[in-house]
Write a structure and sequence with these properties.
By secondary structure, the chain is of the alpha/beta class. It folds into 4 domains: 178 residues, Beta-Lactamase, CATH 3.30.450; 165 residues, Rossmann fold (3-Layer(aba) Sandwich), CATH 3.40.50; 81 residues, Helicase, Ruva Protein, domain 3, CATH 1.10.8.60; 44 residues, Arc Repressor Mutant, subunit A (Orthogonal Bundle), CATH 1.10.10.60. It has 21 helices and 16 strands. A 5-stranded antiparallel beta sheet has the order 2-1-5-4-3. The chain has a 5-stranded parallel beta sheet with strand order 7-10-13-6-14. It has a two-stranded antiparallel sheet with strand order 8-9. The structure holds adenosine-5'-triphosphate and magnesium ion. The site of adenosine-5'-triphosphate has 18 residues, from helix 8 and helix 16.
């Protein structure tokens, strides 16, 4: 009697977790909220302490740990800061090959954990289950125990079933997020030519939109090639002054006196060679925008003159004593840390504070890797037109290399690399070999982690032990000879 009751209770518990999860996933569209809740329930059901749920970002090929419980700080920092790539380490492989992994004892010692942080985690039990939606892996659910764990196979079966509603929830939430991003994109539709997909860049565009018609000067900071001039132009050409002039000058490109006379103009006789009065850029840009690039290169004497102009819109031409007043908005850009320049005594503090009121910070491309795939797509279509080509896509390896690379030259370097690759490309696909060598080299770190690579190394080692005999090797590997032959053939095509 009591065993029947036990049995019923167990059945009840199993059904209730499925029901509970189905309810949870319908409650919200916020992915993190749902998955937090789901993980909590799954761990209680499995009577395990620790776990992670990853989703997969197919644009960046990142495994995103959306929620986790009771993992060491070191592992969490590693997983969140240096995201595991699809195909890398254990969870990346579960996702890539859509296969479940259950390790009953001493899990951290399993060689499939290639990350140092996972090996040091001291996991004893590990179950990693692919989460699917419409036949595609959209995430991985991991249940972990750091101490000996008695697995109940029945519960594992239920957990497998539970991955279905979780998959649907992930799919829905991602669709919702895409729709939300698209709505944001539409809002920024008029920022033509600025590709932005990362949250960081979308937030910056939202901020830029707010300052478009504020008459104050603006400081744009960012490493070289992050798009400072592009943003400055977007501000001007979306403002009420868009019909007026936009002029740009690079403060690093001219010696001090030339920069002064270019900016402020001069009167006849001001210096040898000043044969007539000349208007400066400030006057020429009346009613519009003057863009001062590489501002940090401006001499301190000129900085004083610029500060005066910013304060009361008035300046003196070189050699003149009559003040000139113009209405020009100044947008300055720098790729230096201006505060540091102030500290080092190279930049005036008062000018810095004057400019720093409205400031746009453009992040380095390596800090917003989500923008890489859409930028590549954009540059491909740009250069298809320029070179009359019909490149349609990027190979997975080439994309992976682009995602791994550090891009010290930021978007400009990416643009130049795609331009070069398009010249090299002989098919409809941009391949790894079309990319500049230093970028192609970045692919190795991504690919080396893959299970395929481990398998290849293992097979080649066994083949070596078997003295090159495929028959013996197949026997040792517990594979049939055709399978081994097929795998060897695949390896010989790798890297082509
Ligand atoms: N978000 C973006 N979308 C599309 N193209 C971009 C984007 N950001 C930059 N670019 C392109 O990258 C190149 C470099 O941009 P830009 O000249 O604006 O950079 P910068 O920050 O002014 O660089 P530098 O400090 O070297 O002057 C340009 O060709 C620009 O069109
Ligand atoms: Mg520039």
């Amino acid at each position: 009697m009591s065993t029947q009751k036990d049995h019923l209770e167990r059945q009840n518990r199993k059904l209730s977790i499925l029901y509970d999860i189905a309810l949870t996933v319908g409650k919200s569209l916020e992915l993190k909220e749902i998955l937090d809740d789901v993980l909590e329930k799954v761990l209680a059901f499995m009577r395990a302490r620790s776990g992670v749920i990853y989703t997969i970002d197919y644009e960046t090929l990142d495994m995103v740990p959306v929620t986790y419980r009771n993992l060491s700080d070191e592992l969490v920092t590693d997983l969140t800061k240096n995201k595991v790539k699809l195909g890398e380490c254990m969870c990346g492989n579960i996702a890539q090959f859509d296969h479940e992994v259950v390790i009953l004892k001493n899990a951290s010692a399993d060689p499939r954990f290639t990350r140092e942080s996972a090996r040091k985690e001291g996991m004893d039990f590990y179950a990693g289950l692919p989460i699917k939606a419409k036949g595609k892996v959209v995430g991985v659910l991991c249940v972990i125990s750091h101490s000996p764990y008695d697995l109940d196979e029945d519960l594992l079966d239920v957990l497998r079933a539970a991955t279905l509603p979780i998959g649907l929830a992930i799919e829905n939430a991602l669709l919702f997020e895409t729709a939300r991003k698209e709505a944001d994109h539409l809002k920024h539709k008029d920022f033509e030519g600025i590709i932005a997909s990362s949250r960081k860049m979308l937030d910056i565009l939202t901020m830029v939109r707010k300052i478009i018609n504020v008459p104050s000067s603006i400081l744009i900071c960012g490493e070289s090639g992050t798009g400072k001039e592009l943003v400055a132009r977007a501000i001007h050409f979306n403002s009420l002054q868009r019909e007026r002039t936009f002029l740009a000058i690079n403060c690093a490109a001219l010696p001090e006196n030339l920069l002064e006379s270019e900016m402020f103009g001069y009167v006849k006789g001001a210096f040898t060679g000043a044969n007539a009065n000349k208007k400066g850029l400030l006057e020429a840009a009346e009613g519009g925008t003057l863009f001062l690039d590489e501002l940090e290169a401006m001499s301190k004497a000129l900085q004083v003159k610029l500060l005066r102009f910013l304060q009361d819109r008035t300046f003196y031409k070189v050699g003149d004593t009559r003040p000139v007043t113009v209405d020009v908005r100044v947008i300055a850009a720098t790729n230096r840390d201006l505060q540091e320049e102030v500290r080092a005594g190279r930049f005036r503090e008062d000018l810095y504070y004057r400019l720093n009121v409205i400031r746009v910070d453009l992040p380095a491309l390596r800090d917003r890797r989500e923008d890489i795939p859409p930028l590549i797509k954009y540059f491909i279509s740009k250069f298809n037109k320029k070179f009359c080509k019909s490149v349609k896509r990027v190979s997975k390896e080439a994309l992976q290399a682009a995602m791994n690379y550090e891009w010290p030259g930021n978007v400009r370097e990416l643009e130049n690399s795609i331009e070069r690759a398009m010249v090299m490309a002989e098919s409809e696909e941009l391949r790894l070999s079309d990319l500049p060598a230093e970028i192609a080299a970045a692919s190795a770190s991504g690919l080396d982690w893959s299970m395929d690579k481990v398998e290849k190394e293992h097979i080649l080692k066994v083949l070596d032990i078997a003295g090159g005999s495929r028959k013996k090797a197949a026997l040792l590997l517990n594979l049939d000879t055709t399978t081994l032959w097929r795998k060897l053939k695949k390896y010989s095509n790798w890297g082509k």
